[in-house]
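Hey, can you fold this?
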Amino acid sequence: MIRQKKKVKGIFLACILVILILFSNIAPYTGYNSIMNENNSSVPFNEERDEQPKTSAANLTTYITGEGVNQTVKLYMSNISKSLDNQDGNFEIPAPADNMYLDYGDFRFEFGNNYTTEYIIEEDSALNPRSNYFEEYNFVRDDSYALIEEGIGASGGGIDDLIPGYSTFWNVSSSPNGIVNLTICANFSNAIQLIDGNDLPFNRSNIAGFNLDFEFKLNRSANVTIYMKWRNITSRIWRNITNTIEYNYTQGPHRIEELIINENLGFINESDCVIFQFLFDRSSEIEKNFNVTLYEFALDAFVLLELPIASNSWVALEFDLRGNNSTVNGFYAWIRTLDLDRAQYGHLNISLYRANSTMKTTGPTGIANLGRVNLLIEPNLTQLIDSIILEFDDYSGDNYTYFEFDKSKTDNLNRYNYYIVVTSNVSSGVYSLVTLPSRIWDYGDTDDYFWSSADPFYWLLQYGYRLWPDKR
């Protein structure tokens, strides 16, 4: 009996050992499957091993379901967009979804032959250059004066009370008619500019414009207009340089800053004096009386870079066309009429020529080409495309102006370099073209380069004795 029990006990222990061995082999498999299943539901998406296709062919509207961590992803894709008309200067590139934005792109634009655009060669204004004016003169206060033509000025007051930065001022009361008329003569006859250690005297025939700074305060609202004395062919007349504006007295003091072109050299008289009229007006109001407190009057005259346009001094502007079968509609430029009396008997001649060769004008190669002392290209005077004759009645201006070609002659032009050549049948001193200096790298499309000796998109030459020296 005892022997039988020992036998049963041995069999029982053997069975337990076998069962333990079986469980130890099964557990690793069940545990591994558990981790795999967990990986499909709770592991963050950026730790997944399964990668989505890397092309734009993936279905972007099918959402990935399951749990995960939100994160920003980048999508590399190709997009073709078309705009058949000029959409107010905009070109729309649609995104696949509202919550997507463009981080970076390489673009290639193709324009139809009926697409018209402005080819901006120089976007900086010559009237207000970033590298300061070539010459700048302050008027001589001791030689100048201020008069109250209508109204009553405080005794002892005058132009010496209107110095910028000082605490002085001049009180003026209106006339019974509700008018204050102030005249100021800013005299430049003894003005001097120090350049390179040398005193350069004022020359009114060189002055391109003025900077005006005027500050005042009102005790009642009034209309304000500023006039300047200007010489036309027959006489000197008052010309308003500002529109009439009502100034609210509660918002003062008021400051007026104006950049003024010395149009036709007409704002400086024979005594080198610039005459202003400041008109304050409440004549249409029931309560006409008011007071003006004058604080500051400052005026400086400046010189710009101008190239003479004459019978022996031609000016050429180079540009290149970058589309086949293009049409040159016209161009913008600031051409000055400096002497109205002599301009009556002369004219401007603006011609479009093909260059004698082609030349790269962009990138490092273009910069090197434009920096050459010996020019690679020049106007081919035997290949005239169009010519404009502007008589005195057609043009006698002194502003940034659009000059239009005959499009029937300037269409279907191929990719090449071209020149706009501006000449005149009169001697120097009648016309000039305002430009910017070439050796200042602030200007032109040179920001992408370490240094540039010339503007890579713009080249201006002056003709003289059959030579085209660089005058940009």
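Oh, and this one too while you're at it.
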Amino acid sequence: MAFPPRFLDELRQRVSLAEIVGRRVKLIRRGREYVGLCPFHNEKTPSFSAVEDKGFYHCFGCGAHGDVIGFVMQTESLSFPEAVEQLARQAGLDVPQESREERERAARQASVQSAVDAACAFFEKMLHGADGRAARAYLERRGLDEGTIRRFRLGYAPESRDALKRALVKEIPEPLLVEAGLLRKPEGGGETYDYFRDRVIFPIGDRRGRIIAFGGRVMGDGQPKYLNSPDTPLFQKGRVLYAWALARAAAAKAPSAIVVEGYMDAIALHRAGFATAVAPLGTALTEVQIEELWRMAPEPILCFDGDAAGQRAAARALTRALPILKPGMSLRFAVLPAGEDPDSLILRHGVDAMRGILDRARPLAEVLWSLETALPADTPERRAALEQRLEQQVRLIADRSVQEHYRRFVRERVAESFGARRGPAASADAKRAGPYRRDRFGPAQRLAATPLWREPAPAADPALLQRRREEVLLALILNHPFLLSEIVEDFSAIQWASPHLDRVSGAIQKAHLMQPDLEAAALRRYLTDNGFGEIVEKILSPEVLVHGGFARLEADADTARSGWNHMKSQFQRRLSSTELKEAVAHCVADPTPQSWGRVEQLQRAELESKDQDDGLA
């Protein structure tokens, strides 16, 4: 029996993979994964992993891999239909009975798919033939090489009114070409004609990589600049993302998701090594697309232009996301300088400039505050209006826990912006603000003038700032343990302010001593097995990594080394500061020329170091 794809997708979402696997295997949670001994082969060290939010399991020992349906089939020796029916009963879902209409619809979709596949091959052939000379020149001017063109299956639709029609109609019925969105039928009647003409073609794939539609771009000044396929039995543009399958494959190795505005932007990021880049299809992100992004990463980065249109796009995405926010699931916003897009930024300024923009991506809550404080709030009435707008936004959040945290965040920011209150009320406000309390920024007008793309100021508490630095440094080593072979002596000399992090550092050095070539996954497994699992999860959380892009797993080796050098200077400066305080105290107690000379020496060193950046990267 063939089950409808949407039913199977809903079944996989309804059933907890970790719960089903946990009935046969004792699982331990490590970050976003569950690990345990593989049920498919004998082992003493856990190499089996169940990734709940991605919906798959994998054994690094024997190679077993699959989803929850496949797990039930293998462990209970059931056929596919039997496993589906069993899981459906557990999930409280009725197994759909395939009707004649459903069989006809499935056959129709297969026919439309064959038409789209044939069209994709035609467009590719045209690009690489004589008719595609101008299109190839256009793509070359945009910086695309032959490998990229082939990888993304780019094509060209000839200027002729019926080139595609003439090429395919002998094998594929004309009505099917219309249904597939390849031909257009005039409303007043008459001959059908090609939907795409004289455009560079960008094939659009589904989550599995099957081509289901196309986007076409003019090479000159024609309008519309971009034209997407109409909705078909295979394609609804609000449910699809460009470069989706490639990004999903990359995110399975290192959770990440980057959303840009257009096809060329997504391709440019892939070429630059940002392999989890996708693009919506000419419209604002929909709730369905946001949910799909969360399958790739808990906090996708939305990258917008720095002009007014980019601000509006950020506002639309924020409004769509607020009602569906969940614990641990949100968005971050990276805004490009005015006049730049990812494609142009990378071409003009290089990959590091793009990485810097992404590393400074701001949390959704910060962007909400920036957008709402864009209007003046310099009178009691305007302040009241601001509070009302913020409360209305917060009420959109359906999840009560997330809503309450946003409410506390807003209360804290309002109190900071309009001046501190005195007395018991101020103490109560501070207590309610809790972890969101930050140093005051000053008048609301100054906040309103802060550009959306500017990195927020760090927390004012020196102890908290120092702990965050230490967490970022440990995150760097956990994700890039190859550095230890180069810096182990300097790393072992660090004086940790936090006793807990000091113990983690000691365990890391011990692991490196036993196995110098330890990889990141093995190092995390070692620390978890030795009782550091919870603190390692905290160190590798987005809350920490947002402060140090060089510490992330996807950072390259050179970036990681630069991050180490930066952090090393931070710790050396802290040590110098401590030495200076001790030298001053000694000089007061014993004012000799030698003790005073030591104070002057340390003061000069500290002044020289002031030229370096004293903030977290």
